[in-house]
Specification:
35% of the residues lie in helices and 31% in strands. By secondary structure, the protein is of the alpha/beta class.
């Protein structure tokens, strides 16, 4: 199907335009979202018609007309083709997620990462997800691990509404606990020393909130999954740059830790990368 779409788009766009469009669209449920070179809406409409021709399940195509910005991590969308709706249901890893693509952050490109993290969680663990969105990481963990509890936090009321809906749809009552608010405030108020594992899937705020992630861990330590956006050119290595700044932050807290795993999750733009560090904090007995 991807090959067929590339062939159709190649009849409409130059090779340079094709690469940008082809690599910058997502299908979320029955909604497709594309980024268009230079904001050319005429080209966007051509691309939309080809996407709908190939992806028969797609009922709506939007152009993303702004970056993802703000505390709620939302973007502006312009309808190009199909039904004028922004809510949909998306299937992944035997889960179903309701989401409003205009009012909530969501990326299907993190599906592998969600499964990877879920495979690491052990029975009996308590997890704190500091930036949950509509609850995808949290629900995948709860569906994968038979005995777990995930405190699932987000500051966006609409995202928490959909998170509650996704708890219902996927029947993970009591395993995923949706919480509305700023994660640092919620951790300070009720989750200090509770977690075996903390997720930080918001690169824009991860470094600032890292001390709160540490304080959420149990006294014997635990795991932090830290996500970052990193710029790297030439011989620079994005993962090593991420490690350097995180190490400086953790060293200032005076704790023992190791970087147990790291990788580039994906490219997000020219010379920009999303990275992840799996950090094993080995002890907090004398801290916090």
């Amino acid at each position: 199907m991807r090959k067929r779409l590339r062939e159709k788009l190649s009849n409409v766009f130059s090779s340079a335009e094709l690469k940008l469009i082809y690599n910058s669209f997502d299908v979320i449920g029955d909604i497709a979202i594309i980024k268009v070179p230079d904001g050319n809406i005429a080209n966007a409409e051509k691309a939309a018609s080809q996407i709908m021709a190939v992806h028969r399940n797609v009922k709506t195509v939007f152009a993303q007309t702004s970056p993802i910005v703000g505390d709620f991590r939302v973007r502006e969308l312009r309808l190009l083709a199909g039904e004028d709706k922004t809510s949909t249901k998306y299937k992944e890893s035997d889960c179903v997620f309701a989401v409003d693509v205009e009012k909530c952050y969501f990326s299907p490109r993190l599906s592998h990462e969600r499964l990877r993290i879920a495979s690491l969680v052990k029975d009996g663990e308590t997890v704190v997800n500091m930036f949950s969105g509509v609850g995808c990481f949290s629900v995948v963990i709860a569906k994968t691990v038979s005995q777990t509890k995930v405190f699932s936090i987000d500051v966006n009321p609409t995202a928490v509404h959909y998170m509650e809906e996704n708890v219902r749809i996927n029947r993970v009552y009591g395993k995923v606990i949706p919480l509305l608010g700023d994660s640092k405030d919620i951790i300070n108020a009720q989750l200090q020393g509770k977690a075996d594992r903390v997720l930080m899937p918001l690169p824009e705020k991860a470094l600032e909130y890292l001390p709160y992630a540490v304080s959420a861990l149990k006294k014997h330590g635990g795991w932090i999954h830290y996500y970052d956006f990193q710029h790297a050119t030439g011989n620079e290595k994005p993962v090593e740059k991420t490690k350097l700044k995180v190490a400086q932050k953790l060293d200032s807290l005076g704790i023992d830790y190791i970087f147990a795993f790291s990788r580039v999750v994906r490219s997000t733009g020219p010379n920009w990368y999303q990275t992840v560090l799996d950090i094993h904090v080995t002890s907090l007995l004398n801290k916090f």
